[in-house]
Amino acid sequence: MNLLALQSSVFFFTTTFQLFFHQVKSVNPPIYSDQMLPSYDSITTSVNGSVLRATLNNPPINLYDHQLSADLLSLVRYLENRTDIKVVILCSANPDYFIAHYDIHLIDIKSPPPPPTNTTEVGLALLATRTKLATLPIIFIAEISGQASGAGNELIVQSDMRFAGPNTKLSQLEVGFGLLPGAGGLQFLVNLIGRARAFEYILSGNSVDARTAEAIGWVNKAYASRHELHDGVQSLAQRIATFPKAALAAIKQRINFDKPSDESLNGDNDIFYALSATTEAQRRADRYLELSDNQVGNQFELNLTEDLEELGK
Questions:
Q1: Per residue in 62-84, pLDDT tens?
Q2: Other CB atoms within 10 A of residue 221 CB
Q3: What contacts 82, CB < 8 A, 6 or more positions away?
Q4: Cβ-based neighbour number of residue 199 at 10 Å
Q5: Per-residue pLDDT tens over the stretch 215-260
Q6: Residues 158/223/236/126 CA torsion (nearest 10 deg)
Q7: pTM score
Q8: What SS3 string covers 107-142?
Q9: Beta strands 169-171 and 208-209: pairing type?
């Protein structure tokens, strides 16, 4: 390349960069406030700087039902346009339940949820939320208090980090209903705790407490009190939020490079629904609704993982 051509190339790239830099500098970033946050029936939100806290509040036991499913999907879609948000903390207003589990009416043929709930749409919303958790350039942290089984645990294991309070109880209890984890819990648990332990906990439906979950890699850390959990997670989120969003997004994308494929995850979901239509799964769903007094949070619900075998009687 002759000197004249080289000088022309340098001039072109320098001018182009200066123009781009000027455009970026001249565009004012959008300004947001808590007053602009959308409202949800089962989630309350608040913002502290670049950290958004989403508190799940779907009484009596934070079921993953049509309402929570729709609200979670609406929230993650809203976050696609919040370029200022770097970290989202998912927590619960109910100290006994993070998310109890999937609403059993959604798979029960004899006792489906009343109209206008569309059970297929609820399932699709759950899967869409799962995809957004993995692909949005935002760090999702689960701050866990209380029980999280089935779909509740699936939301947790697909978050980027997980921290547990003293009354945490985690499980994939689908086997007791004649099912398998259909929204990512099976494969993400294998990644987190290993193949042998995934077999142990998914096949038995046994739950783990916070300390055990920490020891085997199910969660990042267990805290001795709910107060310490809140402060520890908030402090970590605020520290992460001090760093450039582009770097956070790139790190998340590369860490997630070998996550379970959508094809494989969708295969689990297909098998879940095929199993849910079997006579045995329907019998167990009916039995559960009877024993739980229709999912109101009675003693059977509180001890559900310990009493799973009752569903077969």
A1: 999 999 999 999 999 999 999 99
A2: 15
A3: 32, 52
A4: 12
A5: 999 999 999 999 999 999 999 999 999 999 999 999 999 999 888 8
A6: 20
A7: 0.87
A8: CCCCCCCCCCCCHHHHHHHHHHHHHHHHHCCCEEEE
A9: antiparallel
